[in-house]
Amino acid sequence: MTKVTMTVNGKTRTAEAEGRTLLAEWLREGVRLTGTHIGCDTSQCGACVVHVNGEAVKACSVLAQEIDGAEVTTVEGMANADGSLGVIQQAFQDYHGLQCGFCTPGMVMSTAALLKDNPQPTEAEVRHYLEGNICRCTGYHNIVKAVMAASGQQVAPVAAE
């Protein structure tokens, strides 16, 4: 076991990790931030997306020891300073871009990366960018609406069910 230290959501965090400990496991078990979900363990579903040094990565494909000293942002770090939902999180709530919620942390983190690089994406660009994130519940329609709304673009309201 080796001590691994990272700045996670603006706070220095240290926890032990074996050489084979994945970043997703280190975040969930080592520092008790459980917003990062582990879905497939094969880097296919995108539920574990976090930002490492400002870049979106799948936390199930990175060893914690490899990024010792890095800056990591998780879905918990997307909230406002007062604990209220951040813009992207609020858009996912407002536009029903979630159902079971399992894919939501990865979708939110991928959306943040997309909007950092492309602040006003088209619907086609959103769909293309989110191809690495699997959702089994929503059919993606409302996720795309949420991303468009988070980018500040006009989106038709979601009909009440």
Write the layout of secondary structure elements.
Layout (H helix, E strand, L loop, with lengths): L1 E7 L2 E7 L5 H8 L18 E4 L2 E4 L12 E3 L13 H8 L9 H14 L5 H7 L11 H10 L11
Parallel strand pairs: 1-5
Antiparallel strand pairs: 1-2, 3-4, 3-5
Helix pairs in contact: 2-5
What key phrases describe this protein's structure?
single chain; 161 residues; alpha+beta; Ubiquitin-like (UB roll); DNA polymerase, domain 1; 2 domains; 5-stranded mixed beta sheet; 5 helices; 5 strands; 29% helix; 16% strand; elongated
How would you characterize the overall build of this protein?
With 161 residues, this protein is α+β, with helices and mostly antiparallel strands. The protein has two domains: 2-78, Beta-grasp domain (Ubiquitin-like (UB roll)), CATH 3.10.20; 87-150, Orthogonal Bundle (DNA polymerase, domain 1). 29% of the residues lie in helices and 16% in strands. It has helices at 23-30, 87-94, 104-117, 123-129, 141-150, and strands spanning 2-8, 11-17, 49-52, 55-58, 71-73. It has a five-stranded mixed sheet, sandwiched between helices. Strand 3 and strand 4 form a beta hairpin. Helix 2 (87-94) packs antiparallel against helix 5 (141-150). The chain is elongated. The termini are far apart. The mean pLDDT is 94. Keywords: 2Fe-2S, Iron, Iron-sulfur, Metal-binding, Oxidoreductase. InterPro entries: 2Fe-2S-bd, 2Fe-2S-bd_dom_sf, 2Fe-2S_ferredoxin-like_sf, 2Fe-2S_ferredoxin-type, Beta-grasp_dom_sf, Diverse_Oxidoreductases. It comes from Jannaschia donghaensis.
